[in-house]
Design goal:
- The complex is a heterodimer of chains A (113) and B (291).
- By secondary structure, chain A is mainly alpha-helical.
- Chain A has two domains: 64 residues, Orthogonal Bundle (Arc Repressor Mutant, subunit A), CATH 1.10.10; 31 residues.
- Chain A has five helices and three strands.
- In chain A, strands 1-3-2 form a three-stranded antiparallel beta sheet.
- In chain A, a hairpin with a 3-residue loop joins strand 2 and strand 3.
- In chain A, helix 1 packs across helix 3 and helix 2 crosses helix 3.
- Chain A is elongated.
- In chain A, 23% of the residues are buried.
- Chain B has 291 residues and is α/β, with parallel strands linked by helices.
- Chain B has two domains: 199 residues, 3-Layer(aba) Sandwich (Rossmann fold), CATH 3.40.50.300; 73 residues, 2-Layer Sandwich (Alpha-Beta Plaits), CATH 3.30.70.
- Chains A and B meet through helix 2 and helix 3 of A and helix 6, helix 7 and strand 14 of B.
Chain lengths: 113, 291
């Protein structure tokens, strides 16, 4: 389902997901602490914590107690996630699989024999 | 902890509060919202001990606030239009507040420096935003355990707002409880963890912002047959139909509602995202008010 406006914690979490998927943040990179990020952005620390929990649960980051929060490494490329999201929208809009494959072949310039 | 039980307050024949119950936990930043004239400022003035409630109990850490000097030295109420005497300068204002609060000069000086305020000039010559900045610096330097802010973001530029929010987070980290009455809901969504919505002399909704947003949702749908919203197997708090498209707002278990609607094979069924402001609008929407 499409979601346009996002809540504060979702926006935060998605920003990090994107950075990890595109490789801007690499495996082992340290993220700012909850407090540092809350202070920098003027966002309630509880909200930042919720974003970090979400990222940790979906396997993007891990916490080393008393040391900090680190990136787990690229999970799935941003392109794959984007393709999934867009295709789901297109499917919802009513395009059949056959039509979609035809367009895919046109876009990629492949043969459809 | 702030506890308000069965609060009643009237001005003449206007009932501002009629049995309101509010609890604000320690170390939380709570947004106080409501339409103009709902009673936000009145509530802050009551909790701040400025005015006396007609009925009910208002306690901070178990003690009634009105005429209670001991508890009042631990709380700071920053009014929308704070008082200062004619000709008073920033320096004199600081001296005044120092007599009532454990004032932290280094915090004050750092904000005065950040905001580039001239403490030797009379406050009346300051712009609206500069006055705000000065009082924000005073409030944060007093480091109160309870801070009540009435529209204190008003008139501050975006950078000053960010500095202010950072100051509030630092204060919360030390265990302080902050209540902010404001109409900048975008700002509140960032900084607050909980909220209280006042409507019709009572508390209409309160709790965690995230949870409240999870609990209310707006849907857009259309079906093969021409169905009226009231004939659908879901109870909406509001529904509109334009052509065949129904836009409706519902509360409760989203998944359950979606399942019921999916079973009718809708042509379209999608969620329209709601933010804090949308939620506010849906909650206070009623016949006859700005509509």
């Amino acid at each position: 389902m499409r979601k346009l406006k996002k809540s504060v914690f979702e926006n935060l979490a998605d920003g990090f997901k994107w950075k990890i998927e595109t490789g801007i943040l690499l495996e082992g990179d340290k993220l700012p602490s909850c407090r540092e990020l809350a202070m920098e952005k003027g966002i309630n620390p509880n909200t930042v914590q919720r974003a970090y929990t979400e990222l940790e649960e979906s396997g993007y980051i891990y916490t080393v107690p008393k040391k900090g929060v680190y990136v787990c490494g690229r999970k799935q490329s941003g392109a794959v996630r984007l393709a999934k999201e867009r295709l789901e929208e297109i499917k919802d809009a009513g395009l059949s699989k056959e039509e979609a494959v035809k367009i895919l072949n046109e876009v990629y310039g492949g043969n459809n024999d | 902890m702030i506890e308000i039980k069965n609060l009643c307050k009237s001005f003449g024949d206007k009932k501002v509060f009629d049995g309101a119950n509010i609890t604000v936990g320690d170390a939380s930043i709570c947004g106080l919202i409501g339409i103009n004239g709902a009673g936000k400022s009145t509530l802050l003035r009551i909790i701040g001990g400025v005015i006396k409630p007609d009925g009910g109990k208002v306690t901070v850490d178990g003690e009634e606030v009105f005429e209670n000097e001991r508890i009042k030295s631990r709380l700071f109420f920053l009014a929308d239009d704070p008082y200062y005497d004619t000709g008073v300068t920033g320096l004199k204002l600081k001296e005044l507040y120092k007599t009532f609060y454990p004032f932290d000069d280094s915090v004050f000086d750092s904000y005065i420096n950040t905001f580039s305020l001239d403490l030797k000039k009379p406050i009346r010559n300051f712009s609206k935003g500069m006055k705000r900045q000065l009082f924000v610096a005073v409030a944060l330097a007093c480091g109160p355990e309870y801070l009540f802010l009435d529209e204190s973001f008003d008139g501050l530029d975006p950078l000053a707002r960010l500095e202010f929010k950072r100051g509030l987070i630092a204060l919360q980290e030390k265990g302080s409880t902050i209540i902010i009455a404001s109409h900048s809901l975008r700002e509140l969504e960032d900084i607050c963890d909980s909220f209280v919505l006042i409507d019709d002399s009572k508390v209409k909704v309160s709790g965690k912002i995230e949870e409240a947003l999870d609990n209310i949702f707006k849907l857009q749908m259309a079906f093969e047959q021409d169905i009226k919203p009231e004939d659908l197997p879901v109870r909406f708090i509001r529904a509109e139909k334009v052509g065949r498209i129904i836009t409706a707002v519902a509360k409760g278990d989203k998944q359950q509602v979606m399942q019921k609607l999916e079973s009718l094979n809708p042509v379209i069924l999608e969620e329209i995202p709601m933010d804090f402001e949308d939620m506010f609008i849906e909650e206070v929407r009623k016949e006859g008010y700005l509509k």
